[in-house]
Amino acid sequence: MTNHPLHWVPLGGVSAERLADARRQLHWAAQAVSAVGKRLLRHQPDYSEQSFRWNEEARALAQGTVEGAQPFLPALRFSSTALILLDASGRARRELPLDGRTLEEAFRWLEEESAGLLGRPVDPPLDRSADIEAHPVGSGAPFSASDAEAFAEMEAWFGNAHQLLTAVCKENPDASTVRCWPHHFDIATLISLDPGASSSETARSIGAGLSPGDTGRPAPYLYVTPWPYPSKENLPDLEGGGIWNTEGWVGALLEAATLLDGSGDPGYRAERFVASAVAGCRTLLA
Fold first, then answer.
1. Distance between CA atoms of 180 and 53, rounded to whole angstroms?
2. Residue ranges covered by each domain of the chain
3. N or C end of the chain: smaller count of CB under 10 Å?
4. What is the CA radius of gyration of the chain?
5. Residue 40 to residue 54: CA distance in whole angstroms
6. If you write DSSP's letter for every residue of 57-97 in order, what string do you get?
7. CA–CA separation, 61 vs 117, rounded Å?
8. Whole-prediction pTM
């Protein structure tokens, strides 16, 4: 990877508790948006029709293009939190601010506005099932986007991670497109070491990504994971403050508290961490 630091949007201005609440609300909102891709985009073997890519023009997570009378990309904007239906240039054709709205209202709006752009009803309706971390919005409470700083910081985490992971892809030709997956809400790429292998269970790979937080670690963290998991012994050194996680899964980990401890430029430290972790995983899987 480049030796020039990434130009990250500053992070660390919001408490972990506030950031986690914004993240959980966005995670639920993402279930509604991903349901559009599940219903209206062509099914892919890896279910990527339900995933998102970072749209820098809109500063939002956007799905693929839904073809119709007026093609659109379903998307979720973090700052000034809203559901948006984008045109090909990243401009909003339709927009629904989420503050004060319920998840059911979000689903209904997506169905109605999608139908208007398609020129036909969305039938059957969008799938409303979801099995993700609990939050009151998942049980009918309205979204609350009043903590604008927290949602803006979550946007910064995703935008910064997209920049970092795009650089990883440039350095690793066998890396997949950077995507955000709605179930875990992480944004990641997968480096295939055995691209011609017939089974994903035995094919060697390295996943690199950002988790915005989860039930085990509520704050954001960067990760690099080798597959199959190697022995927990003799793991190589990591740069940037990274450590090896060996409980439940084996992989390199850089937590937000370490990344933002003030001991260096976060973008540069993130680059060095990921580069050293990918190199270490290649050695472990050789």
1. 6
2. 16-139, 148-285
3. C
4. 19
5. 19
6. TTTEEE-PPBPSSS-BEEEEETTTTEEEEE-TTS-EEEEEE
7. 20
8. 0.95
In angstroms, the CA 151 to CA 129 distance is 24
pLDDT at 261: 95
Alpha helices in the chain (DSSP H): 16-40, 103-118, 148-171, 256-259, 266-285
Please state at what angle helix 148-171 crosses helix 266-285, rounded to 10 degrees: 50
- Eight-class DSSP state of 195: T
CB 100 within 8 A of CB 143: yes
Residue 281 · residue 274 · CB < 8 Å:
no
Q: How many CB atoms lie within 10 A of CB 64?
A: 19
**Cα–Cα–Cα angle for 69, 75, 76, nearest 5°?**
150
Residue-wise pLDDT tens digits, 16-56: 999 999 999 999 999 999 999 999 999 999 999 999 999 99
- How many whole angstroms separate alpha carbon 249 and alpha carbon 131? 21
Give me the helix-helix angle, 103-118 and 16-40, nearest 10°: 40
What six digits make up the tokens of 74? 């379903």
Q: Which residues pair with 245 in a beta bridge?
A: 251
95: left (phi over 0), alpha (psi -120 to 50) or beta: beta
Q: In the structure encoding, which two tokens stand for residue 71, read together? A: 């093609």
Q: How far apart are CA 222 and CA 84, in angstroms?
A: 28
Residue/partner pairs of 213-216 with CB below 8 Å, 24 or more apart: 213/19, 213/20, 213/23, 214/133, 214/184, 215/133, 216/248
Q: Is the peptide bond before 10 cis (omega within 30 degrees of 0)?
A: no
Helix (H) or strand (E) holding 179: strand 179-181
How far apart CA 82 and CA 73 sit, in angstroms, is 14
